[in-house]
Amino acid sequence: MLHVSRFRVAQALASFTGRRHLFSLPDLSNILPGPTDLQTYHEQKTLPYTRQQLYQVVSDVGSYQHFIPFCSASRVLRTTDETQIPIVLDAELTVQFLALKESYVSKVTCIPLESVQAVASSSTPLFKELTTTWRFQSIPERNLLSSVRSPTLPSTTPPNDSTATAATLVRLDLAFAFASPIHAAISSSFFGQVSKLMVDAFEERCAEVYGRR
């Protein structure tokens, strides 16, 4: 079987960087390695911010270009009335890494304080499928304290204070499939880390907006 290294593929793509899209590249699917099937990744992390604070940062899609890895441009094209739940908007994002640079439109569905889900349109040149789902779950303060309090010390948390929130559990589900084996071959070495990088990026963004806790 003919083997083509990722380095040689990257070199070949570099010669096409002057073009806006990669539709004109030859079909190398019979010799290129790398999966184009759906891949899924899951991350979760407890952050010292409220659900409202995290939701506001994640739902601010127009600001993604300032802190999301590999996102070089982002803008909201259309949004529904924010008094109607869920809030639905169309956003154009530009992904750039190595020799690749592509723009695509996602439908973003926001349920305030609960979740933000982005689904790429079927016409994207880069992804055959791309779904990103963020979920937020409040952690009551007494539950957080119980994990660090010495068992010999008496509880000082009011027993009925179920609304006090010291932190939020953030869950990210990322599912994607590349439209081209060329894209899959080039990105397979590092794209699996994107979900973790995204969570870290949002944590840093919260620290910038709300202050480091």
From TrEMBL:
GO BP term, example: cellular respiration
Domain of life: Eukaryota
InterPro entries: COQ10-like, COQ10_START, START-like_dom_sf
GO CC annotation, single: mitochondrion
Coenzyme Q-binding protein COQ10 START domain boundaries: 47-203
Gene3D superfamilies, sorted: 3.30.530.20
Xref: SUPFAM superfamilies: Bet v1-like
Pfam hit, one: Polyketide_cyc
Sample GO molecular function, one term: ubiquinone binding
Cited function: Required for the function of coenzyme Q in the respiratory chain. May serve as a chaperone or may be involved in the transport of Q6 from its site of synthesis to the catalytic sites of the respiratory complexes.
Assembly with partners or alone: Interacts with coenzyme Q.
Similarity field: Belongs to the COQ10 family.
PANTHER family linked to this entry: COENZYME Q-BINDING PROTEIN COQ10, MITOCHONDRIAL, SPERM PROTEIN HOMOLOG
Protein name: Dehydrase and lipid transport-domain-containing protein
